[in-house]
Amino acid sequence: MNKIIHSIFNFLYPIFRDWGMSRSLSTYVSLFFNIILLCILVYGLYVVFRFILVTVLTIVSQNTKTKFDDLLVSNKTATYISYLFPLSFVVESVPVILDKFEYWENVFGQAVRAYIVLMIMWIIRTIFNTLRDYLKLIPRYSDKPIDSFIQVIMIVLWMIGITFIISKLFDIDQKELLTLLGAVSAVIILIFRDTILGFVASVQVAINDMVRIGDWITMDRYGADGDVIEINLATVKVRNFDNTTTTIPTYSLSSDSFQNWRGMLNSDGRRIKRHIIIKASSIRFLKDDELNELKKINLLSAYIDTRKTEIDNYNIGHKIDKTLAINGRNITNLGLFRKYITQYLSQNPGINKDMTMLCRQLQPTAYGVPLEVYAFSKDKRFENYEYIMADIFDHVIASVPYFDLEIFVMSSENEAKPYKQK
């Protein structure tokens, strides 16, 4: 190789000398033409090797089933590798071309070697990017924060590469350079604080399986409410349901509280937990004639018969004085309404009967008695879930007047007024 390079770049100098040029002029003129010739040869080598490598890799990728080589093509790995051949040729040619310019030979030689290191780092980066893209195609790894680990590896490699480049460019021993870097480690830690915190958080997120790509998370502090679309070393990107994007520092996932809805999405139902407020003054005991009227409600007919028989037997057996309704056991309109809602939920095809399903009272408030529906819809999709829940409460609210109950509402003068259906 050296003989070929010498024969290419040393033939001009004797020709210029034979033409009668001085030694100095012949040196500079031959240098000028050698540089032009070097540029032409380097570009030609780049075109040839790029064509060969890209063509070969493309043919291989088209004839194999694996996606890895296809991703190597899309990440232009072969293109970057093709740079190494002309750069190696430049390294070998510089000492010949700049033989009489020792200072510039050293400068350009070190600069080209530094550029080769950068190109090698770039090639490694494309390979890791290919590995990242390939792992994301595998279901087992598609929801893992692969970007974070790739970025950490690249940071370490870039630090090694930059250390090598600096040591070569400025002729500093690598041990001395590492000692110098250790002395300024506090500054480095300060600069890369978020990166270090992000790396630690990424490890915690991966080990504890806290967040995956595709998870629906809610983080009020950052206004995030949507799907995780990217997890990298520094940030987590969330596409909110209003199509905006929220960027969250990765370390916040381990230091702040957030809500992950993955458990709900993986479960058999999505929770419905909503209440209405019944005006306390409308709650009362029901009379026999009212019960007979309410028996017309299909969902309550059998229950009223069974419950009334049970209560009458108890009151008669204990000789309860029923001249006052408060004595003994009784059926209230609110209790019967709760039973009706429970029966209605059990007949609703949108409710998962295998999960918790109830209608319960909450702690009474100054506004009245909250009556809460607690159940799980079978369909967890947002639109269908909202439809099921709205349909249930449409029916619940419309049913209130049949039990002579009243829903609390607030008037414009902030006074409590009952809700009545006409």
Automatic annotation (TrEMBL):
Pfam families: MS_channel_2nd
Intracellular or extracellular location(s): Cell inner membrane
Keyword Plastid: no
Gene3D superfamilies named among the record's database cross-references: 2.30.30.60
GO molecular function list: mechanosensitive monoatomic ion channel activity
Keywords: Cell inner membrane, Cell membrane, Membrane, Stress response, Transmembrane, Transmembrane helix
InterPro entries the record matches: LSM_dom_sf, MscS_beta-dom_sf, MscS_channel_2nd, YbdG
Record bears the keyword Translocase: no
GO biological-process terms attached to the record: cellular response to osmotic stress
A GO cellular-component term linked to this record: plasma membrane
Topological category with respect to the lipid bilayer: Multi-pass membrane protein
Chief subcellular location: membrane
Limits of the Mechanosensitive ion channel MscS domain: 194-262
Transmembrane spans: 31-60, 80-98, 110-128, 148-170, 177-201
This protein's name: Mechanosensing system component YbdG
Organism: Flavobacterium aquicola
